[in-house]
UniProtKB/TrEMBL annotation:
The active site is at residues 113, 156, 257. This is Exodeoxyribonuclease III. It comes from the Bacteria. CDD domains: ExoIII-like_AP-endo. Keywords: Hydrolase, Magnesium, Manganese, Metal-binding. Residues 4-257 form the Endonuclease/exonuclease/phosphatase domain. The record marks 158 as: Transition state stabilizer. Transmembrane segments: none annotated. One of its GO terms (biological process) is DNA repair. The record marks 257 as: Interaction with DNA substrate. GO terms for molecular function: double-stranded DNA 3'-5' DNA exonuclease activity; metal ion binding. Belongs to the DNA repair enzymes AP/ExoA family.
Length: 266
DNA sequence: ATGGTCGAATGTCGA
């Protein structure tokens, strides 16, 4: 089974790229982030004609996540337990950042769009840390109930866990994504039993999944590694390969993120 | 040229 995760930065703007990507790489399950659409705004006809089931979760124009699967999609859950809604001091805004379902042979996959954090002093930064802790709690529960659970946490974590995951640490002084609290929150998820199953095959500086549209970051190879596939022990032992599809960042109409692909053989 | 981009519920914000 081939799974993938991709921050698509608007599914409506890039449906053609999604369809081509699924076909090109023979993908069974694709988790999307930043769909930037409510489900009723999406035309899923072409995906369904290609043999995929789709579950989309979007409540506003900002975020939104989706799961696309041709190997079953059942027991769909939206959002994490214990996650505070945002913003607490405003009204009428609810975010959609997590969606899970069971695919293939009993694999629970979470499509996750971790809050960006904006700036260190912004309330959204504290919200990001609380959100990551809620993710860790849910992930821990899954493995405490069944240590052999097949579970995978995929998506845009908006955290660069290591210095080598950004092109220049000095650029990020005083900025989000690289602070110790964010990295500790990320490590807590890993320490709960969910290893980065892509890094072992693609380690070292310059292995990125995101390049800002601005300032010619992509041609200058100035990127960040913030999109991950974190697998439970049962998933870790099933990984037979992985790659980051840098080609998808090229050309007109690209998302600012590249897809991350993992092959699993249970 | 000392910046350079996108997408959206666009005339501005969030990433």
């Amino acid at each position: 089974m081939r799974i993938a995760t991709w921050n698509i930065n608007s599914l409506r703007a890039r449906m053609d790229r999604v369809l081509a990507f699924l076909e090109r790489h023979d993908v069974d399950v694709l988790a999307l982030q930043e769909t930037k659409a409510k489900p009723e705004q999406l035309d899923l006809t072409a995906l369904q004609e290609a043999g995929y089931e789709v579950s989309a979760h979007g409540l506003n124009q900002w975020n939104g996540v989706a799961l696309i699967s041709r190997v079953g999609l059942s027991d769909v859950r939206t959002e994490l337990p214990d996650v505070p809604s945002w913003p607490e001091d405003e009204t009428g805004v609810v975010e959609a950042r997590a969606l899970s379902g069971v695919v293939g042979d009993g694999l629970r996959i979470w499509s996750l769009y971790v809050p960006n954090g904006r700036e260190l002093e912004h309330p959204h930064y504290a919200y990001k840390l609380r959100w990551l802790e809620a993710l860790r709690a849910e992930a821990s529960r899954t493995l405490s109930e069944d240590p052999a659970a097949r579970a995978v946490l995929v998506g845009d974590f908006n955290v660069a866990p290591m210095d080598e995951d950004v092109w220049d640490m000095s650029f990020f002084e005083g900025k989000t994504h690289v602070t110790e609290p964010e990295r500790a929150a990320f490590r807590a998820v890993v320490d709960a039993g969910y290893a980065d199953v892509v890094r072992p095959d693609h380690e070292g500086p310059g292995v990125y999944t995101y390049w800002d549209y601005q300032a010619l970051r992509f041609p200058k190879k100035e990127g960040m590694r913030i999109d991950f596939v974190l697998g439970s022990p049962a998933v870790q032992s099933a990984v037979s390969g992985s790659f980051i599809d840098r080609e998808e960042r090229k050309g007109k109409g690209a998302s600012d993120h590249a897809p991350v692909v993992v092959d699993l053989e249970f």
